Amino acid sequence: MAKNVFFDMAVKKASGILGKKGRLVLLVSKLALKLRSVNWKDVKAGDVKEKFFTLGRLLKAYALGHYREIPWKPLLLLTAAVIYFVNPIDFLPDLLPVVGLTDDIGILMSVFTSFSGEIEKFIAWEKSRVISV
């Protein structure tokens, strides 16, 4: 991943949020609000919306203590990707229509791809809970 000072700041912030249930739940709430505000018709990146929803569910499950099977580094970087997304001021500010989400999507896709195995484990865990409930 290319050097991005705003993502570096998001990583530092993520390290302060993880381990604090209330702050992590608040971040998931901010993610939900931001996801509702995006005009997804303008986003030409296929399943990006679903990837953000998956991250939200993973972080919520982690915050509530339901899912702890994820190593620290992927959790940290996935949390940082969500922080980067909800923060309106980053490399390409979200105030710029359509273009403002380009860097957010790039960060998400990079982190999501890097830790796809961990995310697949979470999705499998999620499905097993639905079946067994």
Automatic annotation (TrEMBL):
Its main location: membrane. It is found in: Endomembrane system. It is a multi-pass membrane protein. Keywords: Membrane, Transmembrane, Transmembrane helix. The keyword Transmembrane applies. Residues 76-109 form the DUF1232 domain. This is YkvA family protein. The lineage of its organism: Bacteria, Pseudomonadati, Bacteroidota, Cytophagia, Cytophagales.
